[in-house]
Prior knowledge:
Number of helices: 6
Oligomer: single chain
Distance between the termini: 50 Å
Largest sheet: 4 strands, antiparallel
Number of domains: 4
Number of strands: 26
Strand content: 25-35%
Amino acid sequence: xxxxxxxxxxxxxxxxxxxxxxxxxxxxxxxxxxxxxxxxxxxxxxxxxxxxxxxxxxxxxxxxxxxxxxxxxxxxxxxxxxxxxxxxxxxxxxxxxxxxxxxxxxxxxxxxxxxxxxxxxxxxxxxxxxxxxxxxxxxxxxxxxxxxxxxxxxxxxxxxxxxxxxxxxxxxxxxxxxxxxxxxxxxxxxxxxxxxxxxxxxxxxxxxxxxxxxxxxxxxxxxxxxxxxxxxxxxxxxxxxxxxxxxxxxxxxxxxxxxxxxxxxxxxxxxxxxxxxxxxxxxxxxxxxxxxxxxxxxxxxxxxxxxxxxxxxxxxxxxxxxxxxxxxxxxxxxxxxxxxxxxxxxxxxxxxxxxxxxxxxxxxxxxxxxxxxxxxxxxxxxxxxxxxxxxxxxxxxxxxxxxxxxxxxxxxxx
Length: 414
């Protein structure tokens, strides 16, 4: 087959330099240097669209699940790529890999990052040549520099990082120390050690001191789309600790005891942590379902076979849904093609962040609202209906609707 006719997929809607979302119509540059196609291809971004440039076809799926052709390609804002190339030269894979997104972050995180960077830039414009400008003009200047600041900050962090990408084995039968790094106002685990690093480092904490004969059966990890935010041995957190925003919790568990863990670093921070007994631990991904809060004793059931999944798929992020809770007025279900993307209990008042985050995951969502009458309740939290050969999963069924369904067409799960 002619390699120039091979299709490529854009698997993420994030710029790999500034880590901000692409918007429809923005100019995007794809890096094809690792392929036999042309080095760079620029095109207007259009989610779920297709761009054809000569013999190169690029599918803009923007989800790993929707990325049906390989290989996936790196994409940047054209302005970010031009800015970085002019200031620092050719982009390095170390730089891009350090900010690789293991999952798609919530759109609300972009608002938080923008506000944080704006506050830094506005403070810096109060001195120097811009100090004489009115505050409104200084703010406009700061807004135009948000992406450039994110790119420069990333370059500085990566090229001043004290380590190189590696995988370290940590013995939980010894003391464990963690060093931390700040990235745009958020704290990440930079490295793990069994011995305290040389010198007195304020960013180094003693996170585990084993007792004689102690068996570690649980480890709780806080992580986001960039890396590990916290490591908690045996307990999710102490009473004095607070959960960071926009993080997910995953639990490493082994009844016989977890003796070793593997900490996978990208040079800037710890990307992933795995049970040392797993054969595929060195890839840096997170094993097991993740929750917005620490959760224990939670089992994932495969609806197709109605059995508990021993090894759930990687990358599952779970959400709590309040079925039959007081003041719930109904349920919103967001559907993309044949997949249920989001499920939300609706009440008054309710935050709008859920709907914004769902819309950014997939553009062409179909929203279904299922109201709940006073005194009504849902008997089925999930169902599986087979229409032709496609299953539809995860729709709550209120009791008052049961007579409208056809029992032979679906399987109930309690």
